[in-house]
UniProtKB/TrEMBL annotation, chain A:
This is Spermidine/putrescine import ATP-binding protein PotA. One of its GO terms (molecular function) is ABC-type putrescine transporter activity. The keyword Secreted does not apply. It comes from Streptomyces coeruleorubidus. Part of the ABC transporter complex PotABCD involved in spermidine/putrescine import. Responsible for energy coupling to the transport system. Belongs to the ABC transporter superfamily. Spermidine/putrescine importer (TC 3.A.1.11.1) family. Residues 11-239 form the ABC transporter domain. PANTHER family: SPERMIDINE/PUTRESCINE IMPORT ATP-BINDING PROTEIN POTA, SPERMIDINE_PUTRESCINE IMPORT ATP-BINDING PROTEIN POTA. The keyword tRNA processing does not apply. The complex is composed of two ATP-binding proteins (PotA), two transmembrane proteins (PotB and PotC) and a solute-binding protein (PotD).
Automatic annotation (TrEMBL), chain B:
Pfam families: BPD_transp_1 (PF00528). GO terms for cellular component: plasma membrane. It comes from the Bacteria. This is ABC transporter permease. Its main location: membrane. Keywords: Cell membrane, Membrane, Transmembrane, Transmembrane helix, Transport. The chain crosses the membrane at residues 30-50, 89-112, 119-139, 175-198, 226-246, 281-300. Residues 7-18 have a biased composition (Pro residues). It comes from Streptomyces coeruleorubidus. Residues 85-299 form the ABC transmembrane type-1 domain.
Automatic annotation (TrEMBL), chain C:
It is found in: Cell membrane. InterPro entries: Bact_Polyamine_Transport (IPR051789), MetI-like (IPR000515), MetI-like_sf (IPR035906). One of its GO terms (biological process) is transmembrane transport. It is a multi-pass membrane protein. Belongs to the binding-protein-dependent transport system permease family. CysTW subfamily. It holds the Pfam family BPD_transp_1. This is ABC transporter permease. Residues 67-254 form the ABC transmembrane type-1 domain. It comes from the Bacteria. One of its GO terms (cellular component) is plasma membrane.
């Protein structure tokens, strides 16, 4: 698509892989991170995202493949010769040095003598000008995190690598730091590559997200694209919640695929089906819980035509303020999740009630039926 | 930002070129180890071999020694000095048990009850360690002196009658008896018991005591079922650090004991430095080493604590 | 029965304090008897108060000479053992290599070996090599038995050190040498200092191994040993008292440094 910035600043991984003995942490992987973007590697622990990051930093040697920064092959360079800096998971601030010296560390190692002004400015950027002479353990978690960012950013790296930088913070501080990091990234315009297991964090901050699973990139795209058009069940389950119905392709008409599931028919736009859909073949039909409307069976006649529908019985409901979450037992799927906004609550919608679930066919997505419908459910929890 | 590119979808894994991974500094650990390990090999391991060889040599000082595989030296040494061996194990074992009994309350006190006195008590435990142990051992000669206040009190309380009957003391004397030697051994190696005990007690989460109390355990039960089992690593390394050096010690037996309390260390020292009967001394030393290694191995196996270092 | 209850609750405290008294009693005796004026050659019975020994601590021939020998040996042994031991500790914690188990055993064995065994076998080696016993053989022996203790102390510290700190240094343009000097060494320093302190104390106070391998050289512990046979001068009590005070002050000082660090942490 479009790429208006200088492509020479891109991070390009070519066929990069990492094996430890018989275990493959990262399968051969090609990835290009455009300059100036905020890129997230998202996945559960052990999926290879941190290993990938460490290979870019030079802290891990790839078993095969190359890493290039702005067109220069840096695969053979040790970390201290790469124009890349890292914000470590536990910050790794030097305990024997004060904040000022921590931030000045990289500059001093490169032989820069007058560091005072630069360090001062950088500490102001992360709002820690007052704390310069304190030791790391005297600061709070959030402050330490900002020192770690300042210590890396002051070197004006081509790429800033962030390894679960917010993992140690509590929820409220984490939200605050997400916005803060986003602000800093916009301000300095450096490429950020962010490793996280928190899908909300990845979606909030990054403009491109790569979802990794078992050493491979499952899907890559903008957060909205990943959420609306997951290409695997892992992505569909890891990012938010999805309902799956196994269906058989009945016919194709124009840009729509008509499917048989249970006794009824469902419509799926062909553009949103990532699986080969031959007539008679199986497809996993997915739909997000918040796209579904719930109508009591008595009012089934009022549902407009052209919507996908399924009948079922409410098994459970829980009120959580902004919405009510229902679990519906239906012949095609035993626990269908439905999130209904609490605008006009129908008092008849209680456990045991017979209901019709219906949604706009445009919100349906189709996946290859050969995969495990529950992939990624555990990891996302 | 509109810099989004359609990044290429993950390509099918191309066959990775088999490239030997470069190892940075593959030889570094060996260079780091070299001087120290060489030192230990030459001045610790090699001497053991020399000693083993000496133990099967015959000859005399004047004419020199030759390896004649004369294993009878071992048998002769054992039959001549078995009482000293038995005594060493007995004294060291008693001292170890006493160290555990005396050291545990103090370690417990420092770990859980000392509060702001903790540092002070810690200093008082460590500091004697830095003072010459020979001078401190000699002080016991004063404390246990014949007719001194301590011995006088024990005599008046008829404690000495009991210990004499047991063979620990002789008449109204404590000095130059087994009791004095064990007392000195216990004293000398007590810090080696207290420090590991303290280290493992200190790691115990104080909330475990509360949890045990909450679950209907009385203080003594809490100790038996929670505290003591958790301090086992300290107990094991403490007893080893006490027992091993105590078995080979000859200073206490020499300064506080008599010819009737000689331990195997005394024999080795005399044979080596006075009698100059090197084969016998080497054989004795070898037997002592083998015996201790055997006992330690069995003990570690039994207590199930493999990582002591 | 409030008293019985109090006793029950504080039994462990009382027992602990009694042990402490047992530990400290000899030091009290040593100090008190440094002010004694004994009648015969031995300083085991209290006679009368005197400052003679304190006024003239070197008044006994060879005493201060032996003290100086001990200090020199302890200094060099500490230096040697700390250097070699630190290198081994780093190799053990930071690298995977073959023969790791063998190296670990070789480190552990000297600590699990009665001193008299090491002393006797080392003497056999020296006799076989025809080495001249004296300062150098003592130094060699001391470095040997202090080494393992230094390795253990440094290893504990380096193991608890976050390897990410060194990665961070490398990430921030510090080469291997800079990383070691600027990050690794300062952070490992307390462990190295503890190892060195232990080595000094062990070497300075060692008697058994020294006694076997000293030849005609007399260290301070050997002087004390000899005096136990020939007659104990009051001066050794003075030296003992001074050592105790210096040790307490030293430990106090190092604790004060530690406390300051802790307070900064809070």
């Amino acid at each position: 698509m479009t790429n208006k910035t200088d492509p020479t600043g891109d991070v390009r991984l070519t066929g990069i892989s990492k094996t430890y003995g018989a275990f493959t942490a990262v399968h051969p992987l090609d990835l290009t991170v455009p300059q100036g973007s905020f890129f997230a590697l998202l996945g559960a622990s052990g999926c290879g995202k941190t290993t990938t990051l460490r290979m870019i930093a030079g802290l891990e040697e790839p078993s095969a493949g190359t890493v290039s920064l702005g067109g220069q092959d840096v695969t053979a360079l040790p970390p201290y010769k790469r124009p890349v800096n890292t914000v470590f998971q536990s910050y790794a601030l030097f305990p024997h040095l004060d904040i000022f010296e921590n931030v000045a560390f990289g500059l001093r190692r490169r032989g820069i003598k007058s560091v005072k002004k630069q360090v001062g400015e950088m500490l102001d950027l992360v709002q820690l000008g007052e704390q310069a002479r304190k030791k790391p353990h005297q600061l709070s978690g959030g402050q330490q995190q900002r020192v770690a960012v300042a210590r890396a950013l002051i070197n004006h790296p081509k790429v800033l690598l962030l390894d679960e930088p917010l993992g140690a913070l509590d929820l409220k501080l984490r939200r605050q730091m997400q916005l803060e990091l986003k602000r800093i990234q916009t301000e300095v315009g450096i490429t950020f590559i962010h490793v996280t297991h928190d899908q909300e964090e990845a979606m909030t901050m990054a403009d491109t997200v790569a979802v990794m699973n078992a050493g491979r990139v499952e899907q890559l795209g903008s957060p909205a694209d990943l959420y609306e058009n997951p290409r695997t069940t892992f992505v569909a389950n890891f990012l938010g919640t999805s309902n799956f119905i196994e269906a058989e392709v009945d016919s194709k008409s124009g840009e729509e695929i008509v499917l048989k599931a249970g006794g009824g028919k469902l419509v799926l736009p062909e553009a949103r089906c990532s699986a080969p859909a031959a007539t008679g073949g199986k497809v996993l039909v997915g739909v997000r819980p918040e796209k579904i409307s719930l109508t009591h069976a008595d009012d089934a006649g009022e549902i407009p035509d052209g919507r996908n529908r399924i009948t079922g019985r409410i098994a459970d409901s829980s009120f959580i303020g902004v919405s009510t979450q229902y679990v519906v037992d239906s012949p095609v799927c035993s626990d269908f999740e439905v999130y209904a906004q609490n605008i006009d609550r129908d008092p008849r919608l209680v456990p045991g009630a017979e209901v019709v679930l219906h949604w706009n066919p445009a919100h349906t997505f189709g996946l290859d039926a050969d995969q495990d419908a529950d992939a990624g459910v555990e990891e996302a929890a | 930002m509109s810099t989004l590119t359609e990044a290429p979808p993950p390509l099918a894994p191309q066959a990775p070129e088999p490239k030997a991974p470069k190892r940075r500094g593959r030889w570094t650990p060996y260079w780091l180890l070299l001087p120290g390990i060489l030192w230990l090999l030459v001045f610790f391991a090699l001497p053991m071999i020399y000693q083993a060889s000496t133990s099967v040599q015959t000859g005399s000082l004047e004419e020199g020694y030759k390896v004649t595989w004369h294993f009878a030296t071992y048998w002769d040494a054992l039959s001549a000095y078995w009482p000293q061996f038995v005594r060493s194990v007995l004294y060291a074992g008693t001292a170890t048990i006493l160290c555990l009994l005396l050291g545990y309350p103090l370690a417990y006190l420092i770990a859980f009850r000392a509060g702001r006195w903790r540092n002070l008590i810690m200093i008082l435990v460590i500091a004697p360690f830095f003072t010459s142990f020979l001078i401190r051992t000699l002080a016991w000669k004063t404390i246990l002196a014949d007719g001194g206040p301590l011995v006088g009190a024990l005599d008046t309380l008829h404690v000495l009658d009991v210990t004499s009957w047991l063979g620990w003391t002789a008449g109204d004397r404590v000095l130059a008896t087994p009791l004095a030697v064990v007392c000195g051994l216990t004293y000398n190696f007590l810090p080696f018991m207290i420090l590991p005990l303290y280290t493992s007690l200190e790691r115990i989460d104080g909330r475990l005591h509360e949890a045990a109390g909450d679950l209907y355990a009385r203080p003594w039960t809490t100790f038996r079922k929670v505290t003591f089992p958790l301090s086992m690593p300290g107990v094991v390394s403490g007893t080893l650090l006490t027992f091993i050096p105590a078995t080979g010690d000859y200073v206490n037996a020499d300064l506080l004991g008599s010819t009737d309390t000689r331990m195997v260390g005394n024999v080795i020292q005399t044979q080596f430095l006075r009698v100059l009967d090197y084969p016998t001394a080497a054989a004795l030393s070898f037997i002592l080493m083998a015996a201790i290694l055997l006992m330690v191995t069995l003990y570690i196996r039994r207590s199930g604590t493999e990582d002591l270092v | 029965m409030p008293f019985v209850n109090w006793l029950k609750r504080n039994l462990v405290v009382i027992a602990g304090l009694l042990t402490l008294a047992y530990l400290l009693l000899p030091n009290v005796i040593v100090t008190v008897f440094s002010f004694n004026k004994p009648k015969g050659r031995f300083n085991y019975e209290w006679q009368q108060f005197s400052l003679d020994a304190w006024k003239d601590p070197c008044g006994v021939s060879d005493l201060c000479g032996s003290l100086s020998v001990s200090l020199q040996i302890a200094f060099w042994a500490t230096l040697g053992a700390t250097l070699l031991g630190t290198l081994i500790a780093f190799a053990l914690v930071r690298y995977r290599f073959r023969a790791r188990g063998a190296v670990n055993s070789l480190i552990f064995l000297p600590m699990a070996m009665p001193e008299v065994v090491m002393a006797a076998s080392l003497l056999t080696l020296f006799l076989n090599m025809g080495a001249q016993l004296g300062f150098w053989t003592i130094l060699i022996a001391h470095i040997m038995f202090c080494l393992s203790f230094v390795v253990t102390a440094v290893k504990a510290r380096v193991m608890s050190m976050d390897p990410k700190l060194e990665e961070a240094a490398r990430d921030l343009y510090a080469g291997p040498f800079q990383t070691f000097v600027r990050v690794t060494l300062p952070i490992a320093a307390p462990g190295i200092a503890a190892g060195a302190m232990l080595a000094f104390a062990l070497s300075f106070d060692d008697f058994i191994i020294t006694n076997f391998n000293a030849g005609s050289t007399v260290t301070f512990p050997m002087f004390v040993w000899g005096s136990a046979q020939r007659g104990t001068p009051v001066q050794i009590n003075v030296i003992g008292t001074v050592m105790f005070i210096v040790a307490v002050l030293f430990v106090l000082a190092s604790m004060a440094v530690g406390n300051r660090r802790n307070r900064q942490k809070a």
